[in-house]
Amino acid sequence: MLLNIQWRRFFLMTFLVLCLPVLSQASTPRDPYKYFFNETWGDLPEEIEKAKQEGKSGVLIFFEMDECPFCHYMKMNVINQSDVQDYFRKHFLNIVVDIEGDVEMTNFKGESVKQKDFALKEHRVRATPVIAFFDLNGKRIHRHIGKTNGVEEFLWMGEYIVSGAYKEIPFIRYKRKKRNKK
User: Fold this and answer.
1) pLDDT value, residue 83
2) What is the pairing mode between strands 92-98 and 58-64?
């Protein structure tokens, strides 16, 4: 019996030693509001200037609403991952906009508008989430409607913008190329 317990301990310790490096490489979930989204006062021209000063590739706006299950999926499974947060914080200023929000903000033209008007009237956002990327002049360069198919696709979307591939090909073709290289 004692020998049996010692063997179990040995196998358990061996298993842990072998699996620990793999487990430590997995992305750690973190609060997206703290680690993905940047704090903002809602002044988009000011955010553009900040993005330029910090050498970012652009601004990402995540249009959401409270009751949206797909927004919830993105926040609980994709943008809560530390590798996603680190990549997007490095390359973009990330802002959340509530499409039902009455909070005043300043749009890219410098006009004061409510979040819901910015979403619907200026960007025709009706369903959420909508992930919109803007260049450093405030021009929308890519728009993705709905959730992504996971972390990998979302990271590819970031790479698509950072690499400048959005100037050459649609995201669907970029994504297909990435899948074929795997």
Assistant:
1) 96
2) parallel
6 part of a folded domain? no
DSSP E strand stretches across 7-166: 58-64, 92-98, 104-106, 112-114, 130-134, 140-145
Closest CA to 131 of 166, 167, 94, 100: 94
DSSP single-letter state for residue 39: P
Burial of 133 (0-12, 13-18, 19+ CB in 10 A): buried
How many domains is the chain built from?
Answer: 1
Identify whether 1 is part of a domain.
no
Tokens at 132, concatenated: 């919109």
pLDDT tens digits for range 142-155: 999 999 999 999 99
Whether the Cβ atoms of residue 115 and residue 98 lie closer than 8 Å to each other: yes
59 within some domain: yes
How many H-runs (helices) and E-runs (strands) does the chain carry?
Answer: 9, 6
